Structure formats: C-alpha cells, structure tokens
Amino acid sequence: MIEVTAVDAFEDNYIWIVRQKGNANVAIVDPGDEDPVLHYLHENALIPEAILITHHHRDHTGGIEGLLQHFQVPVYGPRLERIPHMTHPLGEGDKVVLAHAQLEFQVLDVPGHTKGHISYYGHDSLFCGDALFTAGCGRIFEGTPEQMHNSLTKFASLPDHSYIYCAHEYTLANLRFARIVEPDNTLISQRYQETAAANARGEGTVPALLSLEKATNPFLRSHINIVHAAAERFSQQKLDSDADVFATVRRWKDSLD
Ligand SMILES: [Zn+2]
User: Fold this and answer.
1) Short-list 163, 170, 162, CA closest to 135
2) Edge-to-edge, what's the strand order for the sheet holding 88-90?
3) Catalytic site residue 57?
4) Active-site residue 228, yes or no?
5) What is the pLDDT of residue 248?
6) What is the 2 CA–ligand 1 centroid distance (Å)?
7) Average pLDDT of each block of 10 consecutive residues along the chain (257 residues)?
8) How far is the CA of 213 from the centre of ligand 1 (A)?
9) 168 a catalytic residue
10) Can 223 be counted among the known catalytic residues?
11) 125-129 and 118-122: which strand pairing?
C-alpha cells in the first residue's frame, strides 16, 4: 500500500510525498516550494529518492533548486519542457522505477495545459499536475483544446478505482461550474454539499476516485447527451464532436472565471 501525503504550498498547491507504508524513501511530486517539503521530510525522518515534475510552471518547480541543496536526487520531468536540473527527460511509455522507495510509475503525455505536460501513473494513483483537476481541468495555455480533450480521454481510460492526485484544491469552485452545466445531476449536487462541508472543516478533497470524476466532472463528460446539449445552448451552435463539446465547455468556464 502506498501512502501519499499532501504538503501544502502557497494558496492552494499540493506537493505530494509518495512512499510505500513503512518505507522511509520517498518521491516528491511537483515541489513548487522547498521549505514546507524540507520541514515535512525532517519531521518524519524521510529520505527523498527522486523529484517528479509534471510541467514547467514555477509553482511546480520552484523548490527543486532548494531541495537539491540538501539532497542529491534525480529530477524526472517532461522531455519537451525546460525543467531546472532535470536529469531524466520523460515521455509517453517511459517508466520511472525507484528501487529504494519501491515505486514504479508509467509516464503519460497529456499536453494541453502546457505543451509537454506529463503525468505519472502507478499504484492505482495518478499524479496529473494541472492537466486534470478534481471536478475540473487545467486551463489551456500552450496546447489546443483538441490536445487537452485527448489527454483527458486518456485519463478516463484508466481503471475506475484510480485516485486522482492533482496539484491544486479547486474542487468547490469547479463543482459550482459543474452544477451550471448539469443542474439536474444529483451526484454533482451531492458532491458539492460534501465538498463545501469538508472545506468548512478545513479539509481538502484531493484525491478523488476516477469513477467519481467520470460521474461529476464536466470535462470528462463531453460524450454525455446532457453536457452536449448544454454546450450547444451556451455556444448557440450545433457541435459535431466530443472534442468540440469539450472545447466549448472549457471556453464556457473561462468566460466565468
Ligand atoms: Zn500549471
């Protein structure tokens, strides 16, 4: 069983510390800042074996330099992006094997948010950076809506019991939008209530199961008739493909943010 701990950084970033239960060797995913990570490692007597980076944005990479001053570890990241101190450039089909930590991840190319964005999948857990969010998805900064749709479709094909470890706590705001797209979806309403209650208790809502995402995340539901119809109402035109529906729903949310 792996144990994944969130180290909070900045306003709403999650830095994930991944390890096998009882094993002191860990992987650090997307350290935007070194201080909270160093503090956590020290408190728990943990030894980093690798840093895993999903994409080049500063709030995911800003802590690399500071961590390397304390630990000489390899830095894995997307081969198509410039990542400070990257030692292992990765792309689709590559594997990350961490011998001491006994962790193994498959690499998925998931462009859209950035051009080279990758994700790490292993141990029923997906570390997806800013590609997929709980109840939402990342903004499309460098790729095309079509690329982003393909990336999300790739996530949707993973086993339903996969846990989604995204890099931000945006669930409530995302569900507010999901309710606009599908006002009659009771699972969305229910998830909204539960998320609001959790946040009121000061709790986060990441990770979430992929099965819940598929039932409530509008960006994974372009193929659903109700979402398709809602997107056509918003854009006031006929949409021919799931990718067009996705692009429209993404544009719709951008228009409200
Ligand atoms: Zn980002």
Assistant:
1) 170
2) 2-9, 13-20, 25-29, 47-52, 75-78, 88-90
3) yes
4) no
5) 98
6) 25
7) 94 96 98 98 98 98 98 98 98 98 98 98 98 98 98 98 98 98 98 98 97 98 98 98 98 95
8) 20
9) yes
10) no
11) antiparallel
CATH dotted code for 2-256: 3.60.15.10
Taking the centre of ligand 1 as the mean of its atom positions, its distance from the CA of residue 243, in whole angstroms, is 22
pLDDT for 60: 98
Distance 55 CA to ligand 1 centre (A): 7
Does the predicted model carry a pTM greater than 0.85? yes
**Residues in the chain, how many?**
257
Look up 94 and say whether it is catalytic.
Answer: no
Q: Which two tokens stand for residue 49?
A: 């074996």
pLDDT for res 185: 98
Annotated catalytic residue: which of 30, 33, 113, 228?
A: 113
DSSP string, 45-83: T-EEEEEE-S---HHHHTTHHHHHTT----EEEETTS--
| 117-140 exposure pattern, b = at least 16 Cβ within 10 A, e = fewer | bbbbbbbebbbbbbbbbbbbbbeb
Instruction: Tell me whether residue 39 is one of the annotated catalytic residues.
Output: no
* Residue 85 annotated among the catalytic residues of the structure: no
